[in-house]
Q: What sequence folds into this?
């Protein structure tokens, strides 16, 4: 099992506690970010995208610095041709099922066909945080799952 | 009866001046009903809850005070279209509901939007529907005239 995947599983499945590498400031791209790497890998494998962006937006939310709990993804793939938005999003959710049930609390999705991407290549912008993650024990559990 | 108490206690109808206050014995009944109620009952209740109104949303917080940026975006979009009568459930008040609605819709995140009992999507989908004009059409199918149509008319 890849180290990046094992870090994202619930504690009960871990046989070895592996401390996470120290976090760099959120805006500094870090190839060692396990959750981001896993998301990128899984979306690439499933969608063979023409274009893929994975953004860790955790720093925009009420979670500790260095968290990997809130993401925005932009997937451009011909697999989406003919599919309504909801089915596209369900496919992305399915690909990231494990992460969404363990360490990822929020996932903003843009799923475009290559043609749609050609017409409008803009990345969407997440709305400002209203602090809902603070004191939310569900988020605390997810942050813990991400750290372990 | 228990499910009626639960769904009434949890629901806030946008536009209502007063939120539902549970009487003391109702509180006890709701609490024990919740405790004893199997997950299957909740799924059945959710089937009724999502049909309670033409537009039903599950958000963090309330329409008056959303507690999450994505939930707030849903509230603001509906407001922009003049949709002011809808049912809203605050998942932060009820962990069982929070998890149950995700199972019900097979959708991992909140907010969740339902039109005529059918799951439409989350914030991203509602936003894209708003941006590409589909939301006006979908509201029309529900018998709701979007306020944006009137705004468009006035500007001409």
A:
């Amino acid at each position: 099992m890849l180290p990046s995947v094992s870090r994202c599983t619930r504690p009960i499945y871990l046989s070895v506690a592996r401390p996470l590498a120290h976090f760099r400031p959120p805006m500094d791209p870090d190839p060692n970010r396990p959750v981001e790497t896993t998301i990128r890998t899984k979306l690439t494998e499933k969608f063979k995208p023409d274009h893929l962006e994975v953004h860790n937006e955790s720093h925009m939310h009420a979670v500790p610095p260095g968290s990997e709990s809130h993401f925005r993804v932009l997937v451009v793939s011909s697999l989406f041709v003919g599919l309504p938005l909801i089915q596209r999003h369900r496919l992305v959710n399915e690909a990231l099922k494990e992460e969404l049930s363990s360490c990822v609390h929020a996932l903003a999705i843009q799923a475009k066909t290559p043609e749609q991407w050609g017409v409008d290549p803009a990345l969407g912008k997440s709305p400002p945080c209203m602090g809902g993650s603070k004191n939310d024990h569900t988020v605390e559990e997810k942050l813990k799952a991400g750290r372990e | 009866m228990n499910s009626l108490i639960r769904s009434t206690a949890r629901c806030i109808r946008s536009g209502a001046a007063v939120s539902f206050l549970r009487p003391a014995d109702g509180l006890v009944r709701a609490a024990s009903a919740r405790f004893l109620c199997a997950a299957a009952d909740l799924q059945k209740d959710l089937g009724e809850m999502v049909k309670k109104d033409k537009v039903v949303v599950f958000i963090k917080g309330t329409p008056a005070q959303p507690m999450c940026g994505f939930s707030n975006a849903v509230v603001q979009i509906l407001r922009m279209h003049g949709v002011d009568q809808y049912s809203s459930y605050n998942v932060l008040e009820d962990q069982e509901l929070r998890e149950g609605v995700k199972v019900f819709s097979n959708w991992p995140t909140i907010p969740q939007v339902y039109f005529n009992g059918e799951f439409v999507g989350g914030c991203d989908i509602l936003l894209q529907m708003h941006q590409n004009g589909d939301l006006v059409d979908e509201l029309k199918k529900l018998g709701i005239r979007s306020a944006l149509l009137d705004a468009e008319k006035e500007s001409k």
In short: The radius of gyration of chain A is 15 Å. The longest helix of chain A spans residues 34-47. Chain A has a mean pLDDT of 81.
